[in-house]
Amino acid sequence: MEEMGMTDLQFKSWLKQLIRGLESAKAESDKKETDKKLDVLLKDLKEDLQS
Fold first, then answer.
1. What's the count of helices (H) and strands (E) in the chain, helices before strands?
2. Less Cβ around it within 10 Å: N or C end of the chain?
3. Exposed, middle or buried, 9 (CB in 10 Å: 0-12/13-18/19+)?
4. Rounded to two decimals, what is the model's pTM?
5. What pLDDT does residue 24 have?
6. How many other β-carbons are positioned within 10 Å of the β-carbon of residue 44?
7. Could you write out the three-class secondary structure of the chain?
8. What is the rounded distance in angstroms from the CA atom of residue 14 to the CA atom of residue 42?
9. Residue 45 contacts by C-beta under 8 Å, 6 or more apart in sequence?
10. Radius of gyration of the chain (CA)
11. Cα angle vertex 42, ends 14, 8, to 5°?
12. Nearest partner of 37 among 28, 50, 47, judged by Cα
């Protein structure tokens, strides 16, 4: 069975979420908080690749 990919609109939405997460992490003044947010983003991206 062939797997369907994202539409352009879905992909743009996913990219916007990723950008918001990165901007949120960048805005943190505490390195530990930045690292926590980046860890969550990395975990989510890795999970997306596995599904």
1. 2, 0
2. N
3. exposed
4. 0.75
5. 94
6. 13
7. CCCCCCCHHHHHHHHHHHHHHHHHHHHCCCHHHHHHHHHHHHHHHHHHHHC
8. 14
9. 18
10. 14
11. 15
12. 28
Contacts 24+ apart (CB under 8 A), 38-47: 45/18
Is 25 within 8 Å of 39 (Cβ atoms)?
no
The structure tokens 């860890």 sit at: 39
Q: Give pLDDT tens digits for 4-50.
A: 788 999 889 989 999 999 999 999 999 999 999 999 999 998 998 88
pLDDT for position 16: 94
Residue with tokens 């690749």: 49
